Amino acid sequence: MYELGVVYRNIVRADRAVAQQLAGLGSATVHEALGRVGLMKPYMRPIQQDVQVSGTAVTVLLQPGDNWMMHVAAEQVQPGDIVVATVTAECSDGYFGDLLATSFQARGARGLIIEAGVRDTQVLRQMQFPVWSRYVSSKGTIKATPGSVNIPIVCAGAYVTPGDVVVADDDGIVVVPRARAAQTLEAARQREAREGAKRDQLASGVLGLDMYGMREPLAAAGLQYLDWQDRG
Amino acid sequence: MYELGVVYRNIVRADRAVAQQLAGLGSATVHEALGRVGLMKPYMRPIQQDVQVSGTAVTVLLQPGDNWMMHVAAEQVQPGDIVVATVTAECSDGYFGDLLATSFQARGARGLIIEAGVRDTQVLRQMQFPVWSRYVSSKGTIKATPGSVNIPIVCAGAYVTPGDVVVADDDGIVVVPRARAAQTLEAARQREAREGAKRDQLASGVLGLDMYGMREPLAAAGLQYLDWQDRG
Amino acid sequence: MYELGVVYRNIVRADRAVAQQLAGLGSATVHEALGRVGLMKPYMRPIQQDVQVSGTAVTVLLQPGDNWMMHVAAEQVQPGDIVVATVTAECSDGYFGDLLATSFQARGARGLIIEAGVRDTQVLRQMQFPVWSRYVSSKGTIKATPGSVNIPIVCAGAYVTPGDVVVADDDGIVVVPRARAAQTLEAARQREAREGAKRDQLASGVLGLDMYGMREPLAAAGLQYLDWQDRG
Amino acid sequence: MYELGVVYRNIVRADRAVAQQLAGLGSATVHEALGRVGLMKPYMRPIQQDVQVSGTAVTVLLQPGDNWMMHVAAEQVQPGDIVVATVTAECSDGYFGDLLATSFQARGARGLIIEAGVRDTQVLRQMQFPVWSRYVSSKGTIKATPGSVNIPIVCAGAYVTPGDVVVADDDGIVVVPRARAAQTLEAARQREAREGAKRDQLASGVLGLDMYGMREPLAAAGLQYLDWQDRG
Amino acid sequence: MYELGVVYRNIVRADRAVAQQLAGLGSATVHEALGRVGLMKPYMRPIQQDVQVSGTAVTVLLQPGDNWMMHVAAEQVQPGDIVVATVTAECSDGYFGDLLATSFQARGARGLIIEAGVRDTQVLRQMQFPVWSRYVSSKGTIKATPGSVNIPIVCAGAYVTPGDVVVADDDGIVVVPRARAAQTLEAARQREAREGAKRDQLASGVLGLDMYGMREPLAAAGLQYLDWQDRG
Amino acid sequence: MYELGVVYRNIVRADRAVAQQLAGLGSATVHEALGRVGLMKPYMRPIQQDVQVSGTAVTVLLQPGDNWMMHVAAEQVQPGDIVVATVTAECSDGYFGDLLATSFQARGARGLIIEAGVRDTQVLRQMQFPVWSRYVSSKGTIKATPGSVNIPIVCAGAYVTPGDVVVADDDGIVVVPRARAAQTLEAARQREAREGAKRDQLASGVLGLDMYGMREPLAAAGLQYLDWQDRG
Fold first, then answer.
1. Cβ–Cβ of C226/B9 closer than 8 Å?
2. Crossing angle of the two packed helices F26-33 and F181-203, in degrees rounded to 10
3. Are F218 and D137 a contacting pair at CB < 8 A?
4. Which residues sit opposite C45 in a β-bridge?
5. Average pLDDT over residues F127-144
6. Residues paired with D160 in a beta bridge
7. Is residue B155 part of a domain?
8. What is the DSSP letter of B91?
9. Contact predicate D147/D65, CB 8 Å
C-alpha cells in the first residue's frame, strides 16, 4: 500500500560492491539466478543501446502529469543509486529531461527506470545517462501534488523496496531484493561460468540435444521424427 | 471537417527563417513555449536517431491502402516544407519509400510526418531524409481514390493547418500555428537561455529543491520526511 | 492444423542460390513482386538495424514459456536456413539467447524470426546473428513439453511451409513459397531495374504526376485544384 | 491550437431539431452521408449497449489527472448538448462519475464523449446517462489546473468545434460540422430510404452482385472463377 | 500463399451434421479435443453475448478499406456456412453491416468471423446474426480492388481452408480441419462426458487435488506447505 | 520477491464483516477512501456486468501456460475469499473455466481476479461466479511446474498480501491492506454519506461551481470567460 506525501531518509542499501558487480552479468543471467522472478514487464525500453547498469534503488511515486517528486528524490540520491519511478495512474508525459539528469548525475545516480515518459533523449544519450522508460514524449509536467520518495513501489509489475539492487540492460530490468543480492551475485557468476564452457562446445558444432542429454527425455515425451516425403 | 478530392495551392506559410530556427530548440522546449499544447501522440516514432528538423507543413489526407495523394503533394512542396500526412482510417501500410523520398527531397522537403506506415527505411536513413511514422511496413499501396492536399487535418491527435510550423526530433512532434511562430520562437529562446544557467548550477551539485525554492511549498503541501528505521 | 510432437526431416528447400539473392532486393520489393501478399504483421521488429537477410525456412512450433523445440530445431538447420518460430499462444518470454545463437550459427543459420521474445540482444548484435522478434525479454523458459519442428506454421499472420524463402530487413518479413521463389526473384529484379530509372528522373525534379501520367486519371477521379485564398 | 484557461460562452449551436433527428440514422449512415470523414477512432467505446444519441457539442480540454473543467463545463450545458472532452495527454483516470452525471443530466445534457476514463458505470447505466470513453477506471482526479471549455478540440482523432453535432451509437462517434448539419441530415435520410428497398431485395435472396451490377466490373478487374477440384 | 483475384467454387465442405453438432460443445472443449491448436488470437471478440455457433468456412481475402469481395462471397454461401474474412493488411474499417448481413442470412450463413471492423452492430444483434470481429467501426469501405474467395487464408493467426469447421462462442474461435471434424466431435463429446462427473464431485466439495491425484506429483515437484506465521 | 514452490497456510484474513461491507461502496469510493492508491490497471475487465463483490485475498502465482496452482489454491479457499492470481510472464491462456469455478464456489469463494485469460465465460455468468481478467481465451493450460499460493504478489500493478481485502466492480479492482480495512470502510461510508446530499443538490440544478465554491479559485488560477462572438 502506498503512503502518500512521505520521504524516507537513511534507507538501507544493498552492499555497493555487490550491486555494481551485478551489472556485468546482465539482466537475463541475474533473472535466472534469482529463480525467474523479479522482472519488470517488457514494455519498459531503453533510450540507448548496448548499455548495462546496476545500482541500488531510490524509489519515487509520482502523480499523473506531475514530476515534483523527482526533485525531492534528487536529494536522496547517493553515488551508485538508480532512481526507480512510477505514477499512480498510466501517464505518458515526459517527466524527466536533461536538467533533472544533470542533477541526478551530479548526485552520483547511475540511471533512471521510469514507468512513464521521458524527453530530451538525444541529450541524455550524449550525457551518457542511461534511461529505461515506457514512453518517450515532449510533454512537460507540473509541480503541484506530492507523491512519495523511498516507499516500496510497484514499477512495471515488479515490487521494489528502496535499497534493492536494480540490473538493467537491453533485455530488460530485474529487481534483486537487498537481502538476496550477495547470493544472487554468486549464483549468477556460477551460471555464467558454466555458460562459457557450453558456448565453446556449441560453437564447435556440438548440439544442445547431446550436450544437455535431451534425446532421451524428448523420446519419453513422445517426440517423433518423420520424413517430410512421407507426409500425407 | 475534411474536404475530399481537393488540393489547395498557394497556401500561406509561416516565415521561413522562423520556421527553420525552431528546429534547434527541440520539440520539448517548443512545446513548453507554446503552453504545453500542440503535441502529436507519442506513438509517432522516428526511423532515425538524433535528428531535429522543422519546417512549414504541407498536409495530406490519404485513403486506406492508397498513397495517390503523396504524388499530388510532391508538386505542392517548396523548399523548407515538411509533409504531414494522415489516413481517413487506421492503416499500417507502407505509404512512402525511397522513390517518393527522392522526389520530395528534390523538391526541397525537409522530412515527412505520417500517421501510417513507411518502408525502405534503411535507404531513407542513407538518404538523410528524416521520417516520423506510426508504423514501419513493407506493405505497398494502390493509387485509386483521391484524398486531399493542403486542407487542415488531424494528425496523431494534433490539428495541423497548411503553413503551420512542425518541429520534430527524438522526443516527438509539435505543431506551432503560423500566427504564433515568431512569438513561440522568442519564448523558446528565452526558456532555453534560462535553462543554461540552471544546468550549470545543477551540475555543480545544487539541488532543484533549493534552486527552485521548492522546500517551502512542499512542506505546505504536507510532505513529510521520516527515517526508514522508524518505519513500522 | 498443427501436428504436435513431430519433427520432419529432409524437408525440400527452395533453391539456395535463389534464396540468397532475394535478400538484396529487400522485403518491400519482394512483397510487391509476390503480388502484395505473404507479409508478416508489422509488430515483428529487428533487434539490429540496416541488416537484410534471406534464407530457407526451418519452422518451429513452441509451447508457452518452453523453448525445448529450439534445441531440436538446431539439428535440422543447414547452411543458408533461417529459423522461423511461433508459439501456440501469445508469449513474451525470452526463448532465445546467445547460447542458442552460437549453436544456430555453428550450424549455418542466417537468422531467426520468432513471434515471441528473445534476450541477450547486445551479444546477438555483436555476434552478427540477426533476429526479428515480437518482444525482447530477459525472462527465461523451461524445457518440458514438445512442440514440433518443420511443420507448416502461421507466424505473425503469415503461413510458412518448411523450405519456403524468408526475406527480412528493417521494413519487415516476407515469405516466398518455395515453388514461386525463382519467378519472384525474376519479377523483383525487373521491378528494381525499373525503379533505378524512375529514381533518376525523380531526383532531377520530374514529378511522379508527370512521370506516371497521373494528371488525367486524377482529374477523371474528380480531384480539384483550388486556391487557398479562395477558401471560405 | 489550444487556448488554455478560457471558457467561451454563447457558442453558436447547430439547429436543435436537425441535431436531434440525426441520432436515429446512426453513426454509420451519417458518416457515409458526410463523405466518410469526421469519425472518432474506434478505441472509443460505449459503457452501455443499444443506445443512439445525438446533440450539439460543448467541448472540454482537461489536464492529466484533473477534472476541474468538467464542473466549469456543466454551467455551459444547455438542453440537447453532448459534452465532448479530451485531455492534453493520454490519461486513463476516471474523470467522470455519477455526481457529475447528475449535474449534467439536470442541465439537459444528452451524454458524454470523453477520450479518457470514467467510473460509476453501473450507476450511469441505471441513470440512463449514455457515455462513450476510452477507458473505465475507478481512479479519481484532482482539481488544480485550468484547461478550457468551448474551444475547438481534437477528440479521438476528430476535430470538434463547439456547436457541432455529435452522433454516437454502438458503432462509433461521428462529428457533423454545424454548417453542414442540415444537408447531412437530408443526405442521410435519402441514403436510408434507398437502403430499405435494397434490404428487401437482399432478404428475398437477390445477390448484391446482381442488385448492384457488380459482375461486369469484377470481370473487368480480372476476377476469375475456378473450380476447387481443379486447384493444384 | 495467397492467390489474388480468384473465387473457388464447389469447395468440399465438412459433413454438415458434424459441423453443426460441434457448436454445442464450445470452443474450449473443441480446442482441447483438437490437441490445443487451431485457435484464433484472443483479440477477436463477439458483438453479442452467450451465443455459440459452428459451421463450414467460406473464406474471404479482402483489400484494405475495400469490401467488394464480401458481395462475391455471398454467392458462394450455402446453408450452414460461416464466412471467415481477413484483410491483406491491418484495417479497422467497418466492412460489414446490416445489408450484407441480410444477404448472408438469406443465403443461410450462420455467422461471420472477420479480422477487421464491422458496423450496424445493434441491428446485427436484433437480426440474431452472430459476428466476431477485431474492431467495431462506423467507417465504410469502397469497392475497387479484387481480393479472393475460398482460398486458404490466415485469419487472426489461424489457418483456414474452405470447408473447415469453425466453432465460435464467447471464449473464442477454433478452426477444425475438415478431415478431422468427425474424430474431433467424438473426442470433444468424450471429454464433455468426463467433465460432467468431475463437476458433480467438485460441486460436492471434493478437491481437484484429490480427484486428479495431484498431491504426490506436486510433492515430487517440490511444492512445500508452510505456515504463514512462520514466515520471516 | 516471489518465493516459488510454496503454499502458505493459515494466512491472517481481514475481518470478514468489514471485508463484505466494502463491496456495496464500490471500487471508486473505496479507492478514494484509501487515498487514491491500491488500484489495479484498467486493462482488467469483468466478464459480467453490474456485479460488485468484495472478499479476502487468497493469492496465486502461476507459471506461463500452467494452471496447476489453481487447484492447490482451491484447498486454501475459505468462505468469503476472492482468489487473486497472476503469472510470472504475460500470458493470455484460459487458466480458469467452469470446473475450477465449481470447485471454488463449493469452497465459498466469492470471485476470481486473474491477470491472464479465462474461458467458459457464458457458463461462469450462469453460475453467477464473478470474474475479472485481462483476457478471455479458449486456450487450455498444462499442469507441470509449481508456482506458489498465498505469497505476496503483484497483480495488474497492485501489491496484494494474502488476507487483504479486494473490492471489484465494473469500474475496476482496488486492494485494501488488511490493517487498514476497518478505517477504510469508515472513511468510505462517510464519503458516501456526503455524496448523497451533494447528489440531491446537483439533481436540483445547483452547479458544482457553486456547491464546491470553485468560482474564486478558478478565477485565481486565471480562468477567463469570453464570448464566442468575440473570438478572432
1. yes
2. 120
3. no
4. C133
5. 96
6. D153
7. yes
8. B
9. no
**Residue pair E122/C126 in contact by the 8 Å Cβ criterion:** no
pTM of the model: 0.96
In SS3 terms, D162-219 reads as CCCEEEEECCEEEEECHHHHHHHHHHHHHHHHHHHHHHHHHHCCCCHHHHCCCHHHHH
CA nearest to C33, candidates C165, C177, C191: C191
Task: From chain A, pick out residues whose CB is under 8 angstroms from the CB of C107.
Answer: 205
Three-state secondary-structure class, residue F225: strand
C127 in any annotated domain: yes
Domain of E135, CATH number, reads 3.50.30.40
Contacts D67 to A, Cβ<8 Å:
none
Structural domain contains residue D108:
yes
Per residue, the 3-state secondary structure of A190-216, as one string, reads HHHHHHHHHHHHHHCCCCHHHHCCCHH
Among the partner residues F36, F199, F222, nearest to D146 by beta-carbon distance: F222
Q: What digits encode the pLDDT tens for the residues F145-199?
A: 999 999 999 999 999 999 999 999 999 999 999 999 999 999 999 999 999 999 9
Using one digit for the tens of pLDDT, what is the confidence trace for C76-123? 999 999 999 999 988 999 999 999 999 999 999 999 999 999 999 999
For residue E226, what are the CA distances in angstroms to D56, E232, F10, F149, F151?
A: 63, 11, 9, 10, 11
Positive or negative, the CA dihedral E39, E42, E45, E48 is positive
Q: What is the pLDDT of residue B232?
A: 66
Distance in angstroms (rounded) separating the CA atoms of residues E121 and E131: 9
Q: Could you identify the residue written with the cell 480539384?
A: C224
Which residue segment(s) compose the domain that C71 sits in?
Answer: 16-187
Span F114-132, pLDDT tens digits = 999 999 999 999 999 999 9
DSSP line for C179-213: GGHHHHHHHHHHHHHHHHHHHHHHHTT--HHHHTT
Residue E226 lies in a domain: no
Q: Which three cell numbers stand for residue C189?
A: 529484379
ipTM: 0.94
Task: Please tell me which of the candidates E32, E173, E226 has its beta carbon nearest to residue F8.
Answer: E226
Q: Give chain E's domain count.
A: 1
